[in-house]
Amino acid sequence: VLRFSGYFTERIEGGGQVYRIRPVVIYYYLLDDAIMIIEPKTPNSGLEQGRLLSRQQVPHPDGGGFWHWTQLNLGMILSIYGRQFVICDCDPFTKEYLISEGTELNNPLPIPSDPYNLLRRSRAESPSRGSDLRPRSAPPAPPGLRGVVLKFDVLVEGVDGGQPAVSPAVLIYRPEDLTIELRQPSYFDHTEIKKFSPILLRAVRVPLTDTRKSGFVDIGEESEVGDWITPRHLIPPANVNIFGRRVMVIGCDNYTNLFLKDNYGVESTPPMKRVETTKPDESGSSGKTQSDIVPRPIIRRGLLIPKDAAVLRFSAKLDSPEDKEGDRKFIITYHLIDDTFEISELDQIQLLHYL
């Protein structure tokens, strides 16, 4: 198998780009004079890469049969089905084979750089792309603040049906990296935050003064932000502005209360409240309330069992012709309240429970 490396040029319409350079690997099979072309996959390229041409005999554009290995050389243009492939180099085996067959090889050519990849690389290496909002840019935290998580009960201001409205949420503050995270409350307990709680705002550092322009954060100017929101600004009751949206802090949990007392001298703060929340169904509409979601105990046959209901218990053993089964002992329980009985084996699981 002869192996060549090359590229083809793809023109781009719009988007500020004129063309793209797409490297390929060209395989020529001496057994059946077939050609296969593979484009190496580039991560996150957005292109359909891989096998561009399956193994097959390719007709010559001049109409004189199929492409033959004697017609291949470095620096030439390989025209296949209207696409122009430039052969730039080959592997050592291909070079040795062609020279041994009397082919005079041209000098290898470098594959040009792709303008789009150069642009992406320059953006990735630019120091101005750093963001002060991201947690990794925060300075190292003191040992006493590592792993500390503060939890506040908040109301987020929004619009519902064209009218101003507020929705309950939980604000999680991490003094270690000065980040704020907003989550919707759990459907069962407003004070309980779990991994599956919907996230309103991922953990980011929030500037104390809103510096947004035209409704978005200017990444290039994030380094100019001075002060960030700290626990001092979240002592309930308080109002803070998180990226243009008003958030009202109305309470906190016990751990946060102790943290504020030890670090900021706050004597007492309102506790977090348990509120009724609705769980949306699959269609997105409001579903059952919290009281409907909490599972209720199973009532036997719909009757309330009095505390003094009589229960008859009998001991029994299995009547079996097998000697090894004769030592098995059972308990038969009969419930007078609903005429049901159950059979259980000692030190074993329940065997039978029916009416």
UniProtKB/TrEMBL annotation:
Main location: cytoplasm
Keywords carried by this UniProt record: Cell projection, Cytoplasm, Cytoskeleton, Repeat
UniProt-listed Pfam families: DM10_dom
Gene3D superfamilies membership: 2.30.29.170
Compartments it resides in: Cytoplasm, Cytoskeleton, Cilium axoneme
GO cellular component, one term: axoneme
Biased composition, class Basic and acidic residues, residue ranges: 122-135, 273-282
Residue ranges, annotated region (Disordered): 122-144, 270-291
Positions of the DM10 domain: 1-102, 146-264, 308-355
Protein name per its UniProtKB record: DM10 domain-containing protein
